[in-house]
Design brief:
By secondary structure, this protein is of the alpha/beta class. It folds into two domains: 5-78, Chemotaxis Receptor Methyltransferase Cher, domain 1, CATH 1.10.155.10; 89-271, Rossmann fold, CATH 3.40.50.150. It is built from ten helices and ten strands. The strands form two sheets. Strands 6-2-1-7-8-10-9 form a seven-stranded mixed beta sheet, covered by helices on one side. It has a three-stranded antiparallel beta sheet with strand order 3-5-4. Helix 10 (227-238) links the parallel strand 7 (213-218) and strand 8. The chain starts with 11 loop residues before the first helix and ends in a 7-residue tail after the last strand.
Length: 278
Amino acid sequence: MQQALSSREIRSTEFAYITGVLHRETGIRLSPGKEALVAGRLDKRLRSLGLADYPEYVRYLRAQPARGAETIQLINLLTTNETFFFREQQHFDFLRDVVVPARDRGRALRLWSAASSTGEEAYTAAMVLSEVLADQPWEIVGTDISSRVVENARRGIYPLTASDKIPRQLLRKYWLRGREEYDGSMAVNRRLRDRVRFHHDNLMGRLGHHGKFDVILLRNVMIYFDPDTKRELVLRLQEMLQPGGYLIVGRSESLNGIPSRLQMIEPSIYRTPGQSRG
C-alpha cells in the first residue's frame, strides 16, 4: 500500500533547495528544524501536481522558469501571514497621538504597511487616520510578497470572528455585515477601502516607485531574515522615509547592531533625522 503523501518526510537536500529558492526570492531564511512546517505547507501542492515525493517536486521546480508561476506558488505557501486587527495597539496609539499632530500639513500623510498580509494592519491604520484626519489628505499603501494575500486584502472581506479586536464604535462606522452568501462575514466600507491601495511587491525588489512615507510599518517580519538581509533592507527603507519619518518594527524586534541613520524613539519605534513641519 502506498504511503500517504502527508506522512512523507522531506530530506535535507530537498529542504535546502526549496528554502534556498525562498531565501533568494524573498530574503526569508528557514533554518533546519523547519522541515515539518515546509512539508505541511507543500504537501497539498504536490498532490495537485500529481507528484509522488519531494525529490520529484525539486526536479519540477528546477525545470520551471526562474521567478515563474511555481516560484510564486511556493512563496504564497511558505510565507507566514499571521495578523489581526489592532495587533500591538501601542503602535496605532503612537500614530494617533504623536505622528498625526506633528505631521506636515502641507501634504498628505503617507503610511506604508510593508508586509501587509491580508490587510488587517493597513485597515487598522486607516481606521485610526480616518478618525483623527477625516477628509484631510492621507493615504495608505500596503505591499506583500504573496499575491494570494494581496488579493484577499483588496477584497476587504473577513470572517466576523476577526472583529473581536475592533472597538465597537469603529466596527459600526467602517464595516458592513454580510448577508446571504456572505453571512458570517464583514466587509470594509468603500470610504475606508478607497484610501488604501494594495500591491504585490517584494521587499527585496525595486520599491522607489511607491515614493516616500511618513510612517513605515514593518512588524514581525525581520525575524525571518538573516543579518545581511536585515542590514540591506533597513538601509533601503530609511531612504523611503520623509525627514522625521518613522520606521516601526514588531515589539519583539530591534535594530540593534544594524548601522543606519535611524534613531530609537522608544522600543520598536525608530525615526530618521529631520523635522516634519507642524
